[in-house]
Amino acid sequence: MKRRDLIKAGVMAGAAAALSAQSQSALSNQPGILTRARNLIFFVYDGMGWEDYAIAQFYSRRVLGKPLALERFLATGVSGLQNTNSLTSFVTESSAAGNAWSTGVKTVNGGLAIHADGRKLTPIFALAKQQGKAVGLVSTATITHATPASFVVSNPDRNAEEQIAEQYLEFGAEVYLGGGTRFFDPAVRRDKKDMYAAFAAKGYGVVKNPRELEASNASKLLGVFSSSHVPYEADRRFQGVDVPSLAQMTRAALPRLAAHSKGFVLQVEAARIDHANHLNDPAATLWDILAADEALEVVMNFVDQNPDTLLIIGSDHVCGAPALYGTGRSYLEGSAGVLLLANQKGTFEFMLARLGNNPSPEQVVELFRTVKGVALKPEQAQVVVDAITKRVYLPDTVRYSVQPANTLSWVMRQTDANKPDLPNIGWNSGQHTASPTVFGVYGRGVAAARIGLIDNTYNFTLMTRALGIRFQNPVMSEQEALEVLKSRAEQPWKHPEDALALV
Ligand SMILES: [Zn+2]
Predict the structure, then answer these.
(1) pLDDT 10s digits, 205-222
(2) Numbered ranges of CATH 3.40.720.10 in the chain
(3) Among candidates 207, 285, 209, 273, which has minimal Cα distance to 243?
(4) pLDDT tens-digit series, residues 84-108
(5) Please, which residues bridge with residue 266 across strands?
(6) Phi, psi values for residue 437, rounded to 5°
(7) How far is the CA of 316 from the centre of ligand 1 (A)?
(8) What is the end-to-end Cα distance of the chain in Å, rounded?
(9) Ligand 1 centroid to 487 CA: how many Å?
(10) For 3-321+446-479, CATH number?
(11) pLDDT category of residue 27 using cuts at 50, 70 and 90
(12) How far does the centroid of ligand 1 lie from the alpha carbon of residue 224, in Å?
């Protein structure tokens, strides 16, 4: 049976409804579960799958000598899985996934808290604000990016980030911390509006680097630390890139929000796990998960000390579908390969910026040696040069959003299946994939909850219940959405790189 036929037969809709209902009854049957929470923290691992978790878990235990806070969360909290599909696609992107969380209804890919026919939805943090809660957004993406934005504003275009910056000003959250100066800086914005001045006029402290962040006494904060997304943790940690860590931003946000008499809602997003997976960059993925873990530790400690806080964690979708595969006889060399990640002290993003538009093969070899700890052969270096200068990319398959970084990944894949010379991580794609993802709750009153498998929309139910909000956004059927999409004259991508807009 084709998927459309399943939909027509109502099988999928029925299954989704049944799952949701099942989860709800499991929760509501438990006395004391999800009692009203004064504060709510929603912690996002953007684009993280279970293999990412496995790699980070092993690396943390073996190299850093401690288990992940996420492992402690999963072991002592209440966790399960969530389905991630959007209204019309089994593979979601971040705004439709964000909408499912923030509005409780499925939407099509591409817009923020809005249906395909233009009907606006009310996102969870707007509802919380109406209750008098303080609101915070912390992200390593541009702060105007899809996942944070979908919790506070409605916009038909997730990429309208200049406009979203203006919507943030009007919304008036207490804390915005992330990347994206180009959407605030009058010298770069197309309309030349000075969004920094506009925020300052509304009482925000405006900070642009880690020292200003630490020094600020402002009760309301706009912190924008990089032109686009906040650079990867591996580059911050090993290459001296001057931006705050996710934990630092989270530590700055919490006391400001906690000072409010009616409590707060906060989204913390480890956004760049997704980007690293798009690029198939194992060190970028690993270190951004480890950075997320430090931020999760901060948040879990806060919840432990402030038990009237509910913490929800989740990943919006999987990306790239990496796999740590067994190597050697009886997989005896499987661990040795992962440990080679310790030699990787920077990301492809950092390397590509260094290489510029016209690098020599020698420059490529030198940078791979110093940043990735990899000895590249001259012919492999030439492949990288061709990717940068001629747009000849690896791998040459349709499942990739082709770009230079994927080529950098594919020239440094393991070559010896018996004795690892490089990390034994293989990638299936440079795109999002359909897998269910991690989901969990932590805080007072959740200890006896049973979760199992939920639909991602159920997060909205959990959040509204915890905050004592009764609200239902309008539901659109998949058939209605498909009709609307069909009526639009969709333009094909001019170049495959345009596909990267959808992250
Ligand atoms: Zn995402």
Answers:
(1) 999 999 999 999 999 999
(2) 3-321+446-479
(3) 209
(4) 999 999 999 999 999 999 999 999 9
(5) 41, 136
(6) -130, 175
(7) 5
(8) 30
(9) 27
(10) 3.40.720.10
(11) very low
(12) 20
